[in-house]
């Protein structure tokens, strides 16, 4: 099945080229950061990682700009 959205590997390899407002899934964020889902949620609760954007009733995503700040050690 073809889709317009690049596969995770392509999006992550082009991470530096993504606009700050682009959205990343939990899976993509976990792969980028090397942290588990549980650790990422802990980071959100502690304020180290921005709150995700809620998409629908069961999906959340993070803005690339917030992820860049998190990966560079910045606290929100």
Question: Could you explain how this protein is built, in words?
Answer:
This protein is an alpha+beta fold and 76 residues long. The chain has one domain: Multidrug-efflux Transporter Regulator, Chain: A, Domain 2 (Orthogonal Bundle), CATH 1.10.1660. Helix content is 42%, strand content 13%. The protein contains 4 helices and 3 strands; from the N terminus they run αβααββα. The protein has helices at residues 8-13, 26-33, 37-46, 64-71; strands spanning 23-24, 53-55, 59-63. The chain has a 3-stranded antiparallel beta sheet. The termini are far apart. The relative contact order is 0.19. The mean pLDDT is 88.
Give a topology summary:
Blueprint: H1 8-13, E1 23-24, H2 26-33, H3 37-46, E2 53-55, E3 59-63, H4 64-71
Antiparallel strand pairs: 1-3, 2-3
List keywords for this structure.
76 residues; alpha+beta; Multidrug-efflux Transporter Regulator, Chain: A, Domain 2; three-stranded antiparallel β-sheet; 4 helices; 3 strands; 42% helix; 13% strand; globular
Structure in a nutshell:
This protein is of the alpha+beta class and 76 residues long. Helix content is 42%, strand content 13%. It has a single domain (8-71), classed as Multidrug-efflux Transporter Regulator, Chain: A, Domain 2.
